[in-house]
Design goal:
By secondary structure, the chain is an alpha/beta fold. The chain is built from eleven helices and ten strands. The two termini are about 25 Å apart.
Length: about 325
Amino acid sequence: MPQTKKAVVLSGSGAKGAWGVGLLKALIEQGKSYDTVIGTSTGSLMGPLVMAGRMDELERAYTSVNQDKIFNVNPFKKNGEIKIWNAVGRLIGGKRTLGESEPLKKLILEFFKVGDYNRINKDEKVFGASVSNLTTGQGEVKTWNQYSYLEMVNWIWASANNQIFMSHLDVEGSTWADGGLNNYANISWVIDNTPDLQEIDVIVHNKREPISNNFKADSGIFNRLLRVVDILTAEIIKSDLLEAKLKIEIEENIDLNIFYMRQDDIDIIGGNSLRFDQQNMENLLQKGYSEMKNGTIDTDSFFIDCDTNRICTKGEHTT
């Protein structure tokens, strides 16, 4: 009989990834292991070290980062608001983005070593980074067995680059950026490309209801831009989760576990997930870890009821 497989899907959302690192640390301490890891944006940064089993190094990465390690042109003030005159100057100058993120690539090279790449390929495990092709408008997943180490570093970097505030990758005749533009959490790709899949853990770096209802109508144009990004992200999250639930209803043999942040988690970071504050990220990582360890995590678990053949939560199933 084929060996059943487990996968983890790591969503985007910048600095909120620190919460996911803490949650993953607790899951792995509880005995979880994964054959497939698919990451989007910040999830693509987490994925290689998760797959390589280097959680201590992953924790160090997410508690030592700051704005200078991400941006060489930082589009944000210390409080997370957009630098208006910087933005105006770049728009007038014909720049493609409001910021640039070349240091992020160096950070990837610092933490994600060629040995991790070789180890993953040797173990025949799958790590993939979700990216968006800005030229065609399509989303893709780039996996380690398709590309060399340095090429894969570029794909991880592209996946983590917000299309408005960070840099772009120009390769293969197209321009590539943040995978979250197409798939916030690429669960469907895992289901479609993993034979004998038994269980998927999905770490959503956002709330169960991702959009807040406290936006001020008199906000300026750049705050409205951030609001548009938040609304689009919320709709992509809903689409990804709905599609995944429909697919496991067809497959009938996959358990789907979804872990969400809470509002008090998000409040630690504030309104801008591209603001990387070291102390905030340390606090958020510890929150994710303690919520998972203490059983206070906000979660959904879906599966197909063997009696009714309908999708339901574990709490609904009776024997």
